[in-house]
Amino acid sequence: MKISLTELQELVNKALVKYGYNDEEVKVLSEILMYAQMRGNNQGIVKLIGNGIPKNMNGKPYEVVKDTPVSALVNGNYTHAMVVMDAITDLAIEKAKASGIGIVGNNNTAESTGAIGYYASKIAKAGFIGLAFSSAPFQTTAPHGSTEALFCTNPLAYAIPMEDGEIVFDMTTSAVAYYGLIEAKTQGTLLADNYGYDADGNDTNDPVKIMGGAIKTMAGHKGSGLALLVQVLAGSLVGAESFNSSSDNGGNLVIAIDPNILSQSDDFKKDVTNIVKRIKSSKPVNTENEVMYPGERGNQATKNVIDSGYIEVEDNLLNELKKVVG
After folding, report:
1. 3-class SS at 79?
2. I need a labelling partner for 132 at 20 to 30 A (CA). Which of 108, 144, 233, 256 fits?
3. d(Cα 156, Cα 115) in Å, to the nearest integer?
């Protein structure tokens, strides 16, 4: 169903207010959710349906508990993870401006951080290389060779500035994002492949059965190795917890790197731009397909939505969102 961008934005804001967020929090959460929705990323408005993302009324303002010129550790104090990760991204940018690099992590957030490419992209828009990692003790994904859910979906992202825009790469280390399962369940569809196991360890493409079993890692042992890296960087390093679904202590890590500490920023951006141009000019698999760089498809989808003023939202998903608003 097509809906105007303005109307969808209003529905999202109303849902967030209903979940108990103040104006400042609504602004941050809404921007991150709409970023994902406009790019066709499954970290968008699907987060607002069903049980949604009600505000933790026991949460307190996040606080910096360890600080150096190039790094900081933040206690999220159970403020929503998107709000906290947006704040640590801003702090990493500040430190990179002052010292050439900023490494900032947080612990004690329970909710999903959403499309973490948003945070890496924010860093790249400031002229820096951005890296982002997110982990949670919510066990959804089996290590390669196992059918037991231990990891969360453990996403990672990077963004690199170019002369005109930025490269943005955003992925889960699981074969499918958990909210991809929720979207498929809401739509009443099966997944394209056997991306997980049921409770008995059998391969399945049924999102409901995978929710009761485990998601596979993407690319087998390679995805499992990346999931472990994310678990260490956004878990162990920042004092978040691993492998305990009853815990609310999730963690995130963002890194901002000023190209000038090793290169000249303008030269760096020019070289990255030339790399991308060469990739795009390479021989395609077939003449109907364009060779694209990471983030280009999402950028184009966002531009199309903004230019037209309308966005396509799956019927069941939109109806569920309207139910939340009432």
Report:
1. coil
2. 144
3. 9
Give the per-residue pLDDT at 246: 87
pLDDT at 278: 98
Give pLDDT < 50 ranges for the chain.
none
Which domains does the chain carry?
Answer: 1-55+297-326 (1.10.1530.10), 61-172+219-281 (3.30.1370.60), 175-216 (3.30.60.50)
**Residue recorded with tokens 């804001």:** 13
CB 26 within 8 A of CB 18: no
Give Cα separations from 313 to 24, 36, 263 (angstroms): 26, 12, 43
Distance from C-alpha of 206 to C-alpha of 226, rounded to nearest angstrom:
25
The encoded tokens of residue 96 equal 């990179």
The answer to whether 213 and 201 have CB atoms below 8 angstroms apart is yes
Q: Which residues pair with 311 in a beta bridge?
A: 3
CB 233 within 8 A of CB 159: no
Structure tokens at 74: 């933040």
Beta bridge partners, 174, equal 217
What the block records as the tokens of 164 is 């005109």
Buried b (16+ CB within 10 A) or exposed e, 3-40: eebeebbebbbbbbeebebeeebbebbbebbbbbbbbe
Number of alpha helices (DSSP H) and beta strands (DSSP E) in the chain? 10, 12
- The pTM score is 0.95
CA dist 144 to 153, 194, 195, 306, 309, Å?
13, 14, 12, 40, 43
Distance CA 149, CA 1 (A): 35
Q: Tally Cβ neighbours within 10 Å of residue 94.
A: 15
Are 46 and 182 within 8 A, CB to CB?
A: yes
Place of tokens 């799956």: 314
Query: Which stretches of 281-326 are DSSP H helices?
Result: 296-308, 315-325
| Backbone phi, psi, residue 276, to 5° | -65, -40
Q: Which of 193, 181, 88, 185 is nearest to 134 (CA)?
A: 88
